[in-house]
Amino acid sequence: MKSTDSIGVIFDMDGVLVDSAESHYESWKRLAEECGGSVTREQFTRTFGRQNCDIIPILFGDVSDERSTALADRKEEIYRELIRSRPPIVEGAPELVRSLHDAGVRLAIGSSAPRENITLILDAMGVTSCVSAIVSGDDHERGKPDPQVFQLAVGRLGLEPSRCVVLEDAPLGVQAARAAGTRTVAVLLYHTAEAFDGADDIVSCLGELSVGRLVSLACM
Q: What is the pTM of this model?
């Protein structure tokens, strides 16, 4: 068994630490309405979890880089306004983060979300000091299933990829984590188990996970 300080756990945020799908959908709808358009649930579902720079051409058509940045910034501003008073934190998320930190496991966030969103959620969970590395959408150029986000997180933890476990809610995220060389746990918040044939472990909720289970997975 490896010492826990040689093991890392990397959390995706949306769909793992926060049940944020409805708030993101509402923020895209409000942005579209401000622009005189609309966004359907089907359009949102097809794009959820991707980077804003990839979503905007699908929802708003061909726009300049400057316009794309402005739209993305406004969308995230609306999202933070929606969740600020009652962040939709997933049950058991703060407890799992704290228990891993207390056991000496190194923790990171690997997300396509802006850093402001991540900071808001970690502060609301009361676990900011538990997380030693954050990779946000501001830090990487290529979205999942490209492994860049998790490669950066592993590097910032100072660990070997095989000693890290990524918690993901999306099939593309699991693909990205596997491509980065990490172990993977699929959390079934938005998808069924059948969507995750490549995951090393699958749980229906964070409450099923323990320090021992994640450490054992990293030591396989």
A: 0.93
What's the chain's Rg over C-alpha atoms?
17
Confirm or reject CATH 1.10.150 for domain 21-83, answering yes or no.
yes
Provide CATH code, domain 4-19+88-218: 3.40.50.1000
pLDDT digits (tens, 9 = 90+) for 7-58: 999 999 999 999 999 999 999 999 999 999 999 999 998 888 788 998 999 9
Residues annotated as part of the active site:
12, 14
pLDDT 10s digits, 104-141: 999 999 999 999 999 999 999 999 999 999 999 999 88
Tell me the domain boundaries of the chain: 4-19+88-218, 21-83
Distance CA 23, CA 4 (A): 35
